[in-house]
Predict the 3D structure of the following.
Amino acid sequence: MSKKLRAWLMVLIFLNGYISLSLELVVLRQLAFWVGSSPVITSIIMGAFLGFMSLGYWLGNSPRVRIGRIPKILSVSFLIISGLALFAASFPFVATYFVMMYQSGITSSIIQTFIYSFVFLSVGPFLFGFNTTLLSRLLQSSNRNNTGNIMAIDTIGSVIASMATTLILMPFIGVNHTVSLVILLGGICALLSYRRIWVWIVSGLIFAFGAYVNSDYVQRNRYNILVNNANSTISVVEYADLRVLDMNRLAMSMYRPSNNSGADYINYINDNYIYNLPKDYKRKILVLGAGGFTAGLNDDFHEYTFVDIEPTLKDISEKHFLKKKLTPNKRFVLQDASQFLKNTTETYDVILLDVYSNSYQIPEGLITAEFMGRIKSRVAPNGVVLMNTIVSTAFTDAYTRVFDNTFHSVFTHNAIRQVIGYMNPWVQSDTANVIYVYINRENDGRIYTINSTPVIYDR
């Protein structure tokens, strides 16, 4: 085997490894918009990927596949991968899939992910494994000592994909253009495998369609998407007297220009805990989860620190959502909420936790007793902790009950639960914004009993 042929095969093995992991990461990011990114969801997707890839490894050794036909087979295989990447990872098609799921009455995120995995993540991963075996057979046809090299090159491709896709491509060029790059690389691999005019035509058509579907034009004009990066898919929809900042399929913030107000739960927090703060000195207010910066929107006196992991939020809010600059008393910190609390030595008079990664889902690390203990350690004497949740108003589901237990295991005293809006304890579908409140004042834990009821002195 010539050095040129060997180098050609190594390049294909590298690109095969790169495309496979890059596609997997893009799929995880796109699905997080709809079903979250919990370990259960991740394990389903990774399990489907690895399972079908293993089947591809196995069937690639079939004696029916003759060595002389391998280049053509590889070309067709990479074209199929390119086409599947278009449909499996492009936001418009993923959105259509989930809309169809909901219209069919399938609302469980686990079932939705299982079906998606078997429809879209079966053929592609199978072909990745199949291609690896075919390329190995070509390399080993002249030298059977290439197994280690093949595994190393394929793994290096995957490692570079993991770093480039998550650290460079999705944050800087966006998820949509990262999908286009995966489609393009699939077409390039098809051409490297079998240079025929029909391969040029098919790969060109797939890429052209994929580039259009994933273009900024389609993203912005059809879906109002302003940002689609590694962290978030953000859009701003404007109505007559209402702007909605949508982030990962959740109406993250609402703003009414006519009266300078926000969503009902934010108005409740502002009116009852922020706008009525005394102004004898500047209080420190910490907002974990910046949203559209509507917390304390009309307060230009107290000192605000907004913490979020999405770097574009301030720019999006000022240009498209609020359409005005934040007042000088508000600063934005780009950091994970838990890490910020871990590193800061400040205590705050008001701490508002309003963090959602997608529709109805608080990141799992932020609903633990350990994280709440970290919040409690940073609230000043007589300070207030406010936590926005979307839960059952009448404790009709296990998540609501366990979360309530968790909150009260840390904030054992001086804690209340405020339902925003309508409440009906006799129905099952009673999900609403519920604000958990803790006021950091001394409490000796005494209770009234039949033998000891000194109410007159306590009052």
Remarks:
- Residues 259-439 form a domain with the Rossmann fold fold (CATH 3.40.50.150).
- The chain is about 50% helix and 15% strand.
- The chain has a mean pLDDT of 90.
